[in-house]
Amino acid sequence: xxxxLENFDYFGKWRATYDFRQRVEDPxxxxxxxxxxxxxxxxxxxxxxxxxxxxxxxxxGLPDGxxxxxxxxxxxxxxxxxxxxxxxxxxxxxxxxxxGRQLEYYDEPAVRTVIxxxxxxxxxxxxxxxxxxxxxxxxxxxxxxxxxx
Length: 149
Prior knowledge:
The chain is α+β, with helices and mostly antiparallel strands. The protein has 2 domains: 1-26 and 46-81, no CATH class; 82-141. The chain has 5 helices and 5 strands. A hairpin with an 8-residue loop joins strand 2 and strand 3 (45-55).
């Protein structure tokens, strides 16, 4: 599943290829030359590099055997085969984030209520947010106690 998101670099920027930069000895093979000075040598040091690009494989598969290609394919596969699990995870993670803690067994009714409302309202994000902030666990969450010295 991770390879489908491999096109995004660590900043979230889209890329179509891996860029490998390797040192070469022959300047004719190089597409980049760097010259620098070191403290130990009076002469400048010259290094030649060649950049090789390879296409990023974005194909993958789910544990049930469903295959996909790229982020759009992953989205389609998850929505077709794991829709209910995906909705439950999004609701659970968002509620846990809003509460500032992990969910407990007694939060399950709130999760089910949010999911039921999302189903009737077309899974809109604003509905998710509204249902979380009006849920019982959110409205009646306890503030952590502070110790005073």
